[in-house]
Write a structure and sequence with these properties.
The protein is α/β, with parallel strands linked by helices. The longest helix has 22 residues. The protein is globular and about 65 Å long. The chain binds phosphoenolpyruvate (PEP) and cobalt (II) ion.
Length: 460
């Protein structure tokens, strides 16, 4: 039985536990809100269990196939979006700008390296955050930490910080509208490669990276015109539409369980809240509720791997999360920090390679490189981001594994949250447009700059 796992009972006997979408409830779940009103939470869970799924199992399988190509070294994963989506900044422009910068990055990666980019947004569900401390104390008042708009609100007041289960419904509704718009943008003309030039936003276009992008876009336009001139139609869905998938950290398991449904074609369980879901660095305990939930769903899944992960832990995670060794099923998202990347990652890569696990390796160069600036802003330096990605490529090349992708926090907007980059953001600029609700994101220029640097690494 693929979904069963051997567990030790209290008496020491080995018992086989069959997975269901609720077996996680028998395990301990880290980083969960203290819901003050359990009957209300249960009511919401019931409601969400009956709403339509956000994605279809077949789409999740498509993504798994694309990721299997990444695992083989034939494609590259670009996973990107907000650290935390907001209920407040919810409008079509923000969604379009995020999509636009991801499309631009994908074009740069594909055109420069010839490797197809699999595009996955941290979007349409990225509403819950694990925090380093469960509570925050200001002037002697202790309140629950902000855990993302799916749980509570950011202002430091008792009513804002009180976890409210109705927010799960709002997260579902916002995810639904976001997905609807993403589907319209990607299939309805906005993502047509003929418009590659138009994706360059004004504040990006004036920068060096923007100008470099303009030159690349002109070459693509010329190639499309050449195709037409030779009688080959460039009006294929592969050119006029983009394939775009959604993902988020599966932190609030009541929400994930409620959206987990049996696929009528295969009779298997899929978490229909997103195409891909991942386990965060703080919730990847082997005996914990998150690993238990994720091992049973059939979606492609991710798991963050930080500097404290041991080789044995990672091998066990591979065994538990992908016992059938299905390519594309498991993406390990490493976030070692620029200083640890070589020494931290090498033994893990070697062990997973030797064990024959077909994982996708993605580099999250953001979460291991966060610090607080003198101005009091949580930030990251663009140079550290590039340093971690460069180290990621070299250590993979040394071990003979495929540096399969990047996982980054970005926004299409002209924010000043990360330092450095081509048109440098300086410490004194951080306060100007620091808009993130959680971690600092690359702005459109920095994101494009990173894409060019990754494309060069891919091309070597
Ligand atoms: C995140 O991706 O926003 C996050 C919290 O990352 P990690 O689990 O790697 O700390
Ligand atoms: Co983050």
């Amino acid at each position: 039985m693929a979904n069963s796992i051997a567990n030790r009972s209290d008496s020491g006997d080995t018992v086989t536990v069959t997975w269901t979408p609720e077996t996680w409830r028998h395990k301990s779940a880290a980083h969960q809100p203290q819901w003050p009103d359990i009957p209300e939470l249960e009511k919401v869970e019931k409601e969400l269990a009956s709403v339509p799924p956000l994605v279809f199992a077949g789409e999740a399988r498509d993504l798994k196939q694309r990721l299997a190509r990444v695992a083989e070294g034939k494609a590259f994963l670009l996973q990107a979006g907000d650290c935390a989506e907001s209920f407040d900044g919810f409008n079509a422009d923000a969604i379009r700008e995020k999509l636009r910068v991801i499309l631009q990055m994908a074009v740069v990666l594909t055109y420069s390296s010839g490797v197809p980019a699999v595009k996955v947004g941290r979007i349409a569900g990225q509403f819950a955050k694990p925090r380093s401390k469960p509570t925050e104390t200001v002037d002697g008042t202790e309140l629950p930490s902000f855990l993302g708009h799916m749980v509570n609100d950011l202002p430091f007041s008792e009513s804002d910080r009180r976890p409210d289960a109705q927010r799960l419904v709002q997260a579902y509704n916002q995810s639904s509208s976001t997905l609807n718009l993403l589907r319209a943008f990607t299939k309805g003309g906005f993502a047509d490669l003929h418009r590659v030039q138009a994706w360059n936003q004004e504040f990006v276009a004036s920068s060096n990276q923007g100008q470099r992008y303009t030159r690349l876009a002109s070459e693509i336009n010329r190639a499309l015109r050449f195709m037409e001139a030779t009688g080959i139609s460039s009006r294929h869905p592969e050119i006029s539409e983009a394939e775009f998938f959604t993902s988020h950290e599966a932190l609030i398991l009541q929400y994930e369980q409620a959206l987990t449904r049996v696929d009528s074609l295969t009779d298997e369980w899929y978490d229909c809240s997103a195409h891909m879901v991942w386990i965060g660095e703080r919730t990847r305990q082997l005996d914990g509720a998150h690993v238990e939930f994720m091992r049973g769903i059939k979606n492609p899944i991710g798991c963050k791997v930080g500097p404290t992960a041991t080789v044995d832990e990672v091998l066990s995670l591979c065994e538990v999360l992908n016992p059938d060794r299905e390519p594309g099923r498991l993406t390990l998202i490493t976030r070692m920090g620029a200083d640890n990347i070589t020494d931290g990652l090498k033994p893990i890569l070697e062990a997973v390679r030797d064990a024959g696990h077909p994982v996708v390796w993605a580099c999250d160069p953001m979460h291991g490189n966060t610090f607080t600036s003198d101005t009091g802003h949580k930030t990251r330096h663009f140079d550290d981001v590039v340093r971690e990605v460069t180290g990621f490529f070299s250590v993979h090349r040394a071990v003979g594994t495929w540096p399969g992708g990047i996982h980054v926090e970005l926004t299409g907007d002209d924010v000043t949250e990360c330092l450095g980059g081509g048109e440098e953001v300086h410490p004194q600029d951080l306060g100007k447009r620091y808009e993130t609700m959680c971690d600092p994101r690359l702005n459109g220029r920095q994101a494009l700059d990173l894409a060019f640097q990754v494309a060069e690494l891919l091309d070597q």
